[in-house]
Write a structure and sequence with these properties.
This protein has 9 helices and 16 strands. With 338 residues, it is α+β, with helices and mostly antiparallel strands. The structure holds ligand L4NPZUNZ, 2-oxoglutaric acid and fe (ii) ion.
Amino acid sequence: MVVASPSPIKSEKRQSSIELPIIDLSMERSEVSRQIVKACEDYGFFKLINHGVPHDIIDTLEEESFKFFGKSVAEKLKAGPASPFGYGCKNIGFNGDVGEVEYLLFHTNPLSISQNSELISNDPSKFSNAVKGYIEAVRGVGCEILDLIAEGMWVPDTSVFSRLIRDVDNDSILRLNHYPALPLTLKERDTSPSSTLHPHQLSQRIGFGEHFDPQILTILRSNDVAGLQISLKDGLWVPVIPDPTSLCVNVGDVLQAMTNGRFVSVRHRVMANSCKPRLSMAYFAAPPLHACITPQPELFTPHVPSLYRSFSWADYKKATYSLRLGETRLDLFRKLGN
Ligand SMILES: C=C1C[C@]23C[C@@]1(O)CC[C@H]2[C@@]12CC[C@H](O)[C@@](C)(C(=O)O1)[C@H]2[C@@H]3C(=O)O
Ligand SMILES: O=C(O)CCC(=O)C(=O)O
Ligand SMILES: [Fe+2]
């Protein structure tokens, strides 16, 4: 359902809110897999309910995250810079991208979480257990989704996708993003009749600039504060309604390549215009560095032959990190003439 609302941004096409396809993981298995495949083909994004990640695991990580982001700047900087793991503030990646976001980035390897937690928390084992507990639960959901995808696409080897993130050497990442509340003074100026600022200028505060997620799958949980937007085919940016009880799942570039373009990795961004802080936890499910990414032959058709050349996740990651946030990278791996 797409709900129309007046446009706050003049230079862009009219905005509206979008209710993503809602998939109930407790439904009958073949129906869940059919719906997931359809959502990944049509939208590249869906909302997962009854996902089974225990509330206490989510709540503990949320509390620990707010505790960290509530510390003084000097304290937080001790856990930085994000190179790429650790604490980052406003700077995203290494190529000059900035946004109104501060974050913690972790490799999901348990040893590296324990080591990083020493610099993050006064109670490192509490913090690292919260992060590890969440990762374990959400990785389980990721594996389940990937198995359901293989089943729904009639790929005979139903572990072909999930195997990549079950591998001990998987290169998955957890990102905790904190978008501070818009300072009240700015909010007041925004609505004040005497304001000299164009009322829409402040609505343009970018939290995390537009981009595609490079990995296989992203599983995102946010608090009840809006901000995430996805770009539809016609260039329209639509806000996703936040729902802390569900998980927002999106297709990454690697899954688009492995499904031979049947699934779409969709451009998205985060605006930071709220008077409440947004906190999101993004799990990026990635293969091991040496894994060979190649389109599944079962998904070739006479009309759509193999679209992408084989590449390793290390190759793709290298290309990703050498480019600006908003850049399209998957096209570099497309076969010529396709
Ligand atoms: C500017 C950058 C940050 C990023 C690496 C990159 O060079 C381009 C992709 C960015 C992104 C987007 C999705 C994830 O948040 C992320 C961790 C990833 O894998 O690719 C970030 C990278 C990052 O912040 O390090
Ligand atoms: O913080 C969010 O809601 C989404 C962030 C995001 O897209 C990312 O970290 O890749
Ligand atoms: Fe993203």
